[in-house]
Amino acid sequence: MHDLYHPGQNNAYQINSISKHALRYNDKSVLENFHLYESFKLLNNPKSNILCKLQKEENRIFRKRMIECILATDMTNHFKVLAILKSKVENIKKQTNESIITLIINQGENAILKFDIQQDILNFLIHTADISNPAKEFVICKQWASLCMEEFFRQGDLEKAESLPVSFLCDRGETVNIPKAQIGFIKGIVSPIINLLVDIIPELTYFQKNIDKNLEEWENY
To answer: How far is CA 84 from CA 79, 88, 119, in A?
Structure first.
């Protein structure tokens, strides 16, 4: 469901160009709402409804979970998603050495509170997966970076052609240095969220090791 039918331009472009998506979703998490709309449209088709065996209540819960998850991938929510779970993890670490993920999942004095806490984890996990390419081996990380930057540059070309503000990292000219952009992305965005992921699930330490190696590769590029 995530990024289904992505048009290749980000939310800034949608809003600045007053696209049909921006008009439909009132400039709020434009593409994330678009992906959800298209996904649930597919699921409403009996020929492609993989949820047809679910009961009504199960279907309702699935829909609620997925809406929250996909909306959480909007980068404007990054620091909010990170802060919510980081606070919970830090509080638990002060109290016990037991499995953090189990304790977080089972927190909550009632079913509603527990549901919300579990949703925080789901939001965090899908957002982490979405921006995790710098946590992969460098050969993959480099290819992802190259493809993402080309997509950004194409958006920048389009913005220039349409006399729109050129979005951050989208100027194909000399103003964008890909290795420096990746270093900033890793240090400012990806590394803190992967560190928190490893706090919750220590078995994923190899992601931290990949990030350290990739950072060194980009610094020597």
So the answer is: 8, 7, 11
